[in-house]
Amino acid sequence: MTAHSPGGRDATTGVPAPARAAEEPSKAGRLPGLDGLRALAIVAVLTFHLDPSWLPGGFLGVDVFFVVSGFLITTLLVRERAVTGGLDLPGFWTRRARRLLPALLVCVPASVLLARLSEGDLLVGIGRQVLGAFTFTSNWLELAAGSDYFAATTPTLFMNLWSLAVEEQFYLLWPLAVLVLLRVTRGYEARAAVALGLAVVSAVLMAVHVDPQSPTRAYYGTDTHVMGLMLGAALAFAWAAPHRAWTRTPWWGAHRRQVAAAALVTLLALMATAGEASAWTFRGGILLASLATTALVLVVVERPGRIQAVLELPAARWIGARSYGIYLWHWPVFLVIGADLPVAPGSPAYLATRVWCVVMTLVIADLSYRFIETPVRRYGFRGTAGRALARLRAMGPRGARVLWGLALVLALVVTVVLVTAPERTATEELITANEAALALEDTTASSADERRPANPGTATADAASSSPSPTASAAVAASTTADWTMPSGKEIDVFGDSMAVGSIHALRYYLPGIRVDGKSNRQWSAAPTYVAAKGDSLRRAVVIVLGTNAGTDLPVARKTLDAIGPDRMVVLTTVHGRFARAEEDNAALRELVEGRPNVRLADWDAALKGTSGQLQSDGIHPSLKGSHLFAKTVRQALADLSEERTGKAVVLKELPSP
């Protein structure tokens, strides 16, 4: 999951004269340190996307980009008004198009082709994604499609373009708002107050809309995530005032260093700790990160200092200047490499793949910067097209025909790929088929139960629609005589989500007769209901495969284990996925089993470390090969629990696996 666009990053400079405003601004007007801030932001984003556990709050890099963009774009507009007496909005939008479109027009079709050659699952929903990319509506289209940035179970090739959409919407609407503000308000302080008010409104909307279980709506929404852009705009208005955002006061002179240190420490601390699993991240954390970035922007542009010197290092400026290309390419590159080299975390090979992802991203971004972005920004669309045509003519008719033919073939191939893209991933197809088979089994079993005489001791169907009462829980707990020998498959019940559904074939292979009650998107909140529905028919060993969706709910999980009782063998599986909360969820599961001698963890996450080819393209669900590892991990946990309780070794039969 997702992060963060440095779109429109050429605005690092001021506009000293009308003649220069239409073209590349004067280097004399360049604002120092901002390329370095972009470098910090893109490094945070890349680290988060490489592995969320490395930097849980790395996605806050987008808010650094937003603040910088809001400041620079508003500064350009204010300076143009001061120099020319008006705003050339068509010229402004043309310059934005020059900056954003060339790299995007290359990245999207190239990524589609690479994905098709690598992994077909990467193309699910690609038509919607391409439409969003070229209309700058990705954030709203993905929300309408139900995408989840922080817990995506389907790989989204252009997931990162949501923030580019937010920025482009800002570029379209904000100049109009600035034009109105410049006409109806007097004084830059009043204009800054308006922008600050909009930032507060956006922060409040994010706090109101956020669902801690699925915060994507609050994160993707333009209305809920514009506070960074507005804070940057407010700073730009204040910076344009004679007092230069109050930096010419004695207080600023006395406390400038403390402000800089506090802002930097705050931002870095939030990136290290503010994960998506915490509601506080969206109810103040993102706003605080944006405020810290605003303070850093003011510190680095106001005068030279240590922070500015670090941010002006050649490496920082190099990365910052290419941050748009790095951001644009990194997510498709990560997905394609991840599909070609599917190595789970926990080994040198995994680290090597992550390094390779970064190297390839930097190489492609640099080529894009040199040969696509810079020429168009320097010569414009017409000038670049003219130069390209001149080179074609110099190649002669035959060379020109070859290139035009190649371009036509590539265009046709991309079109065919888009038209024939799959509607669902292989994982979704497998899970859907398995769910249908389970539903048929349940229907057959229910029909058989109806033909049997009623058993007063069996739980009624009403139990399936309500949580068990303490009396019912006690009845379940006392329904069997404790038996800690290794259970056969016919003595095991499984309750789970898509992880269990996708692994049915392997579970039944290693534990014939196992009974599976599974469905996609299940959460811990419903677990007590499923357990109660089994009543006296609950088997003596229970396996629970939950937590992939919405994490581990400890109070509900405890209630579920209490309902199962202390006389049954219970195995819980750890979760694995490219989401930062995975470690927290697994820690919660370890806490859950403490003091419960009848409960054991099947550590699926640990079993994957250093392996390859065990997961589907989403990085969560097991592949055919991985489902066997998953089933064997569950079986081994049952065997370990049996040995622990009986003191007798359990010898598991070795079965051939793919």
TrEMBL record:
It is found in: Cell membrane. Keywords: Acyltransferase, Cell membrane, Membrane, Transferase, Transmembrane, Transmembrane helix. The keyword Transcription does not apply. Its main location: membrane. It comes from the Bacteria. Residues 32-368 form the Acyltransferase domain. InterPro entries: Acyl_transf_3_dom (IPR002656), Acyltransferase_3 (IPR050879), SGNH_hydro_sf (IPR036514). The keyword Plastid does not apply. Gene3D superfamilies: SGNH hydrolase (3.40.50.1110). Residues 1-28, 443-472 are annotated as: Disordered. The chain crosses the membrane at residues 54-78, 99-117, 169-185, 192-210, 225-246, 258-274, 280-301, 321-339, 351-372, 402-421. Residues 458-472 have a biased composition (Low complexity). It is a multi-pass membrane protein. This is Peptidoglycan O-acetyltransferase OatA. It comes from Ornithinibacter aureus. The lineage of its organism: Bacteria, Bacillati, Actinomycetota, Actinomycetes, Micrococcales.
